[in-house]
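Reading group handout, session on sequence-to-structure problems. Before we discuss, look at one worked example. The prompt was deliberately terse, the way you'd type it at a terminal:

> structure HTH-type transcriptional regulator BetI

The input record follows.
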Amino acid sequence: MREIRRAQLIDATLHTIDQSGLAGATLASVAQRASISTGIVSHYFGDKDGLLEATMRHVLRSLWQGTSRRRKAAKADPRAKLRAVVAANFDVEQVNGPVMKTWLAFWSESMHKPELRRLQRVNTRRLHSNLCADFSRALTKPAARRAASGLAALIDGLWLRGALAGEPFDTKAALRLAYDYIDLVLDARG
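And the output record:
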């Protein structure tokens, strides 16, 4: 029951942030959306910061699982592995309205809250590590690090622009631009 309740509250948090923003996502509003008492939310998460942290851990876990699944399914060549990482970052689970707005709230709050900052650092390092490992299979280590930094910045920039556009995320355009970058970098080595 505990895990079911936690999942229900995380879902309610995502949708409350989507509808009301982070400021409107109080323990009471999340509890109301989940049709439970505020005391139960406090019991599971402590306070609003704990609720946001748990919600972001859920979103980050989903991203990590999607990335792992796509990388395992991809062909063994660097281009396919890199494209798998990109595709996971633009998966529907990461670019739907509630998750996008929660990511934006998380990024903003991570500048002020050490535990959220730590989660953001872990996510940034994981992305860079995956990209660097795959670029390293085709480039020198310094070139792979530069290419990984560039692709990570491109992923974040495309994602941020898409999130702020005020219209449905154009996944195909984002993928096309990121894939073009991969092709340019890998084709330039030859």
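Points for discussion. First: The radius of gyration is 18 Å. Second: The first helix runs from residue 2 to 24.
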